[in-house]
Amino acid sequence: MNSKLTSLFARRSIRKYTQEPIPAPLINDLLEAAMAAPSAMGKNPWQIVALQTRESIDKLAFCLPNGKMLAGATAALLVCGDINQAHDKELSFLLQDTSAAIENILLAASMLGLGACWLGIHPREERIEAVRTTFCLPEGILPVAGISLGWPDEEKEPRTRLQAEQVHFEQW
Predict the structure, then answer these.
(1) Is residue 115 a contact partner of residue 17, using CB atoms and an 8 Å limit?
(2) Can you tell me the mean pLDDT for 94-103?
(3) How many CB atoms lie within 10 A of CB 140?
(4) Is 60 among the domain residues?
(5) Res 133: pLDDT
């Protein structure tokens, strides 16, 4: 691994957290990182719901069958996209833009010493509808993913997952 990329390789999905709260300025740092992501034609269709109370985090966990780690999280982010703001109102652009924002959040969290885990919502209709209803999302707002956040209560080594057989130079 190239040592200049250590921050990137150190980003791992963390599912166990201490109960120490995350200060509001760090949540703001994550939101700034999210919105520094590239976006098709600079449309920035992301909309983010910051969850910082136990009640709100538990509501998100109830909507996501694989969100058990949210029970230990001290914060969470619900990353959504506004289809009316997306480039050409295309779902594909909305998903690309919000995914870039999500990855920025995950990398920033790791760099700030926080643990985080990406929880998919889209394309599962039952999850989308549960989140829409629970968090009163307006028409045209698509929940894409949740992100559990907390101070890590587990350690994972940096790693690369390069698989040379999945790389093709010049042509397939």
Answers:
(1) yes
(2) 98
(3) 15
(4) yes
(5) 98
Is the peptide bond preceding residue 123 cis, with omega within 30 degrees of 0? yes
Locus of tokens 């230990």: 72
How many domains does the chain fold into?
1
Amino acid, single-letter form, for residue 57 = I
Q: CATH number of the domain that 55 lies in?
A: 3.40.109.10
Each residue's pLDDT tens digit, 4-41: 999 999 999 999 999 999 999 999 999 999 999 999 99
Q: Is residue 4 part of a domain?
A: no
153's CB contacts (< 8 A; 6+ apart) are 16, 17, 18, 72, 115
pLDDT for residue 1: 86
Count Cβ atoms below 10 Å from residue 22 Cβ, excluding itself.
20
Q: Give SS3 for 49.
A: strand
**Domain, as residue range, for 45:** 14-154
4: phi then psi, degrees, rounded to nearest 5: -70, -15
pLDDT tens-digit readout, 137-158? 999 999 999 999 999 999 999 9
Average pLDDT over residues 37-60: 98
Q: Which residues of 46-77 are buried (b: 16+ CB within 10 A; e: fewer)?
A: bbbbebeeeebbebbbebbeebebbebbbbbb
